[in-house]
Amino acid sequence: MEIIRTVAELKAKLDDARARGSVGLVPTMGALHAGHLSLIERARKENDTVVVSVFVNPTQFNNPTDLATYPRTEEADAALLEGAGVDYAFIPSVDEVYPEPDTRVFDLGPVAEVMEGAMRPGHFNGVAQVVSKLFRFTEPTRAYFGEKDFQQIAVIRKMAEIEGFKNLEIVDCPIKREADGLALSSRNVRLSAEQRSVAPAIAMTLRASLIKARDMSLAETKQWVIDTINRYPFMQVEYYEIVDALTMQPIAEWSDSERPVGCITVFCGDVRLIDNIKYSL
Ligand code: AMP
After folding, report:
1. How many CA atoms lie within 13 A of 162 on its CB side?
2. Marked catalytic residue, from 17, 24, 33, 36
3. How confident is the model at residue 106 (pLDDT cuts 50, 70, 90)?
4. Of 24, 129, 139, 150, which residue is the least packed, with the fewest Cβ within 10 Å?
């Protein structure tokens, strides 16, 4: 594996790689865990060359404390990537990605206005900025994203449409979980031992809501999930929305969508955890 720090070097290497075959890109912010590795494994199976970017993108953080406390573990990340059979680890500096400030404002439309878009102003514009740059730098055949960030995938698809990235397949990958159900996240390391022990209640409650949903209206199911999670110590639901999987718009009745997805964010102490569940097969 080669560690690459400049855009020029990355482009040169990938021009050669593209001439030989397909290129799979897995964008990450580092602090890598088995969730990231599941995306990388899939990329490895489906592409001749695999590039993983490790870049904590400042423009997608609307909270300076979150950016400052975001875990950074470059050495461990490089070792994991090497072990996963990655060809190129792209680990640029902020100046390399943003030689000048990125002032682009993307018209992402309704998919970016709700949930994370409403709670974290500017977040998705920052995601669109960095992912569009990564797509330009790497021109991948396929790019891999986790369904843990369910809304993000819809936003990236919209960005790709706006920017005309046509010959690029965006691949959704399922959520990887701990044995107790907690969705893997780089932020989990910030949980105290006590918080970590209650955090699986999020996934457990979402799963239990699949059964409740058979008899409850959508509004009742939503409220049941919120109330159940809020009864645990440390836990405060920020939002729970049941949306259509394509439009990301909240629905009022189960019959309003063929693919309803429940998207939740919960503060466990001061750690913001996200998860989601599909109410259809
Ligand atoms: P991040 O480093 O958190 O920005 O995540 C990089 C990519 O890994 C994103 O596409 C995430 O959705 C994905 N990812 C993060 N955690 C998980 C997980 N537990 N399961 C599957 N994908 C994940």
Report:
1. 17
2. 36
3. very high
4. 139
